[in-house]
Amino acid sequence: MPGSAIVTGASSGIGRAIALELVDAGYDVTAAARRESDIPGAVSVRSDQSDPAAPAALVARHLERCGGLDVLVANAGVLIEEPLKDVTLEAWDTTFQLNARSPFLLVQAALPALRESAGLVVVVASQAGVDGMPGAPAYAASKHAAIGLVQAIVQDENIRATALCPGFVDTPMVADVPVAAERMIRPEDMARAVRFLLDLSPVCVVEQIVVRRLRREA
Question: Is residue 172 part of a domain?
């Protein structure tokens, strides 16, 4: 039976699509982002996940409103494209703050509530975390760390977790990628993947979903 959910990075792209899907499924959704989220049926919260205090504050606000938590979707992220020789410490740290540290802090803050509900954690990682990404090694390394976080979570009794690892998804984050939008994965595809996880028996653990882009013409 649906309960409540938190989705970060919910103002656009994958996060917005997942938040809409969860609302449609009957969940009471807290949609968090740096700017206001226009998601019918969800409660919008402004939250900058690069701030180390923000994840715990977001979870506390949600629990105060809903009393529990059933689904946590850690989606907020950043992509800085710099080859290895040019990556600055600032870019490396900024990337890890959002892509690796924020999911960790969210899960840590939500752990008691998720244990109580036998809840589901979805960390939006990337195909880059599986295969690497020469043009953005900081991004690839941070998403690899996010996958490692999920591997740690699934060892925790009573908690399911999945790393969602898509290739290029048609979102503002990849606006400069030289791939036509019609050849990219849709944000709604990732939302359906989350719906699939929720439709499974609660004893099922899907540790990783890798969604690659079909390269040949359809």
Answer: yes
Q: Which two tokens stand for residue 132?
A: 């690497």
* Cα 118 to Cα 31: distance, rounded to the nearest angstrom: 21
For residue 91, the SS3 value is helix
Q: Are 41 and 86 in contact (CB under 8 A)?
A: no
Q: What is the 3-state secondary structure (H, E, C) of 1-45?
A: CCCEEEEECCCCHHHHHHHHHHHHCCCEEEEEECCCCCCCCCEEE
| Residues sharing a CB contact under 8 Å with residue 189, sequence separation 6 or more, in sequence order | 166, 169, 211
Q: Is residue 19 part of a domain?
A: yes
The beta strands (E) that lie in the chain are given as: 4-8, 28-33, 43-46, 71-74, 120-124, 160-166, 208-211
Q: Could you count the other beta carbons within 10 Å of the beta carbon of residue 176?
A: 8
* Rounded average pLDDT per 10-residue block, the chain, 218 residues: 92 95 97 90 96 98 97 95 92 96 98 95 95 92 97 88 92 72 88 97 94 74
CATH number for position 10? 3.40.50.720
On whether the pTM is more than 0.85, the answer is yes
Residues noted as catalytic? 139
Number of structural domains (the chain) is 1
Residues in the chain: 218
